[in-house]
Specification:
The complex is a heterodimer of chains A (about 110) and B (about 120). Chain A has strands spanning about 5, 10-15, 20-25, 30-40, 45-50, 55-60, 60-65, 70-75, 85-95, 100-105, 105-110. With about 110 residues, chain A is mainly β. With about 120 residues, chain B is mainly beta. In chain B, the strands form two sheets. In chain B, strands 2, 4, 5, 6, 9, 10 and 11 form a seven-stranded mixed sheet that branches. The chains are: A mainly beta (about 110), B mainly beta (about 120). The interface between A and B is medium-sized, with 27 and 30 residues.
Chain lengths: ~110, ~120
């Protein structure tokens, strides 16, 4: 049972345009959501997070939106840069479960110059 | 650089063998988490330690065990290795203030290949 899903395995965008990566979850008890970026042969790098009590969090070019009623979150990257090309994972955690992360399957983003 | 270190970076071994993966958390972090990334399963939580004690367990096989030492570094022991254990093993750490909603920072991983 996949509690966190990223339905798009890949996404291609032009440099300078907006990249929108989506993530859906099924467990309404998740209270913290995170996005990680991963390059091949490296560990996941933390990008941005959002608490379940918020609906938006922004950090520079990265904005995460949370729609609790739809159990959906998205990561917006504006403007996209070639260096953003990587695999992006969304993850969710439950405070009462020791904060273990449940990950989506990842979306490979390719930003074309 | 996340501040989390893992050794070794690569490990090649044979079926039936036992290996130990090591992780040092970021300075000040009390919690250590282990994750496995295999081709068909994605990133899966294995086990968490907090200040030397086991705190949460995921889908960790009985052949696998872990511990966290007084200096807070952690080791993941994998025994009776099978071909299917070939994967990337990541360690992550967090401050663990007890308030929840904590960000985990990941190490570079250990790539295990079982032949």
């Amino acid at each position: 049972d996949q509690q966190v899903k990223q339905n798009s395995p890949s996404l291609s965008v032009q440099e300078g345009r907006i990249s929108i990566l989506n993530c859906d979850y099924t467990n309404s008890m998740f209270d913290y959501f995170l996005w990680y970026k991963k390059y091949p042969a490296e560990g996941p790098t933390f990008l941005i997070s959002i608490s379940s009590i918020k609906d938006k969090n922004e950090d520079g070019r990265f904005t995460v939106f949370l729609n609790k009623s739809a159990k959906h979150l998205s990561l917006h990257i504006v403007p996209s840069q070639p260096g953003d090309s990587a695999v992006y994972f969304c993850a969710a955690s439950l405070n009462n479960a020791g904060n273990m992360l449940t990950f989506g399957g990842g979306t490979r983003l390719m930003v074309k110059p | 650089d996340s501040g989390v270190t893992q050794t070794p970076k690569h490990l090649i071994t044979a079926t039936g063998q036992r290996v130990t993966l090591r992780c040092s958390p970021r300075s000040g972090d009390l919690s250590v988490y282990w994750y496995q990334q295999s081709l068909d399963q994605g990133l899966q939580f294995l086990i968490q330690y907090y200040n030397g004690e086991e705190r949460a367990k995921g889908n960790i096989l009985e052949r696998f065990s872990a511990q966290q030492f007084p200096d807070l570094h952690s080791e993941l022991n994998l025994s009776s290795l099978e071909l299917g254990d070939s994967a990337l093993y990541f360690c992550a750490s967090s401050v663990a203030t007890g308030g929840g909603q904590e960000t985990q920072y990941f190490g570079p991983g250990t790539r295990l290949l079982v032949l």
